Amino acid sequence: MKLKNYYYLLVFIPLLLLFFTAEANPIRQSALIIDTSGTIDQSTVELIKEGLNEAKRQDAEVIILILNTPGGGLSETFEIADMIAESTVPVVGYVYPNGAAAWSSGTFLLMSTHIAAMSNHTIIGSCQPVEIGIDGTHLINDSKTINALVEWLQERAAMYNRNTTIAEEFIRVNMNVNATVAYNNKVIEYVSSDLTTLLRMINGTNVKTINGDRTLLTMDIEEVWYKPSIGVLLIRFFSNPVLSSLLLMIGVFSLIIGISTPGHGAEVLGGLAILLSLIGSGFNISTLSIIFLAVGVLLLVIEIYATPGFGVIGLGGVISLIIGSLFLIPSYTNNQWLISRDYMNNAMIIMLVVILLILAFFLFLLYKIIKIRKKKPSVGVLIGQKAKTVDRLTPGVIGYIRFKGEYWQAKADTTIEPNTDVIIVNKEESILTVEPVKETKG
Length: 442
Fold this sequence. Notes:
Blueprint: H1 2-24, E1 30-35, H2 42-58, E2 62-67, E3 71-73, H3 74-85, E4 91-95, E5 101-103, H4 105-112, E6 115-118, E7 123-125, E8 130-133, E9 136-139, H5 143-159, H6 164-172, E10 176-178, H7 179-184, E11 190-191, H8 195-201, E12 206-209, E13 212-215, E14 222-225, H9 230-238, H10 241-260, H11 266-281, H12 287-305, H13 312-326, H14 332-335, E15 337-339, H15 341-374, E16 386-389, E17 399-403, E18 406-411, E19 421-428, E20 431-436
Parallel strand pairs: 1-2, 1-14, 2-4, 4-6, 5-7, 6-11, 18-20
Antiparallel strand pairs: 3-15, 7-10, 8-9, 12-13, 16-17, 16-19, 17-18, 19-20
């Protein structure tokens, strides 16, 4: 009986120790880090949507949103801001690494996070909308647009007790501030040189989420970098505004070549490039750009078929395509983008250089096509030319001769041995009539 009691005791004590050990060492929570570096577009929306769902699934303690961006789509920025506001997991916006910048819509996102932080030597601001015109880029001062953006950004700043005056100046005067100025003026809450330090700094901070107040426990917490799905990576690749614009231009030029010389696959390549471009841009392309591109294609097709020679009509088509390509670059009035002026200027330079190179290549092809179309039929040009027999030719038997590196079927009224010089005297469809070269006496 005593042995039986000891047996129960031996089983019960390990179970009891296991219970207390589990209570003393709860499952270690994590900080989910989402890197949104690059332009803010539809791929960023999908990335953050996936990341928020993953953080909720993992019951993460906090989400760190890495911001290093020239700006991006306004509608996408608002959509992301709404997702952050509805997140049950606190979101920390962090401009990182050192030397990074969160301009335009990047600043909008930073102001929308539960906690705003910046790394050393980083910059935010430059939120005044920019548009592209024939004369280049210029700032938008339309009061309706500016007032709407100011009101939105000030409301987000006020939601988290941040400086609403500077939030307004980000838009009205295109103000920029570094991490020190932003912290001293209560635009952000923390300045930290790295992620680990930031997590230690925000430990114990009280955050108000959609589910109420929550105290962050982030001391020595596990840092987990979120890995997006393949679908998001593909969308992110094709969503690059410069790449999607270039794909559209390549597609347009390929269609022109395909129309000119069908059957070689250029039209298929053009269709695929245009489709990928539309997917990457979210079907959000400037109407003005579409008009110029359509006119450019029409004029070049007319030049090729109606008035071959590449004159004024062809030149007009080329100019229309160049202007259309420039309007593909994202700007506020074109595609509702809120992006820095420097980014747009650089994009214009890249687009112009690449488009001109592509244009030169396709114009060379068009030139060759037009040259071939203008070439007069070469009826009778073979007559009188010299060739050399390959086979032994006899009356009534067709053999082969070699003419300028090409093999032709030929016949003769006399017997001619192989490797003999002959003169072409007639052509009936694809069969030539030849006779031996008569030797001249000296």
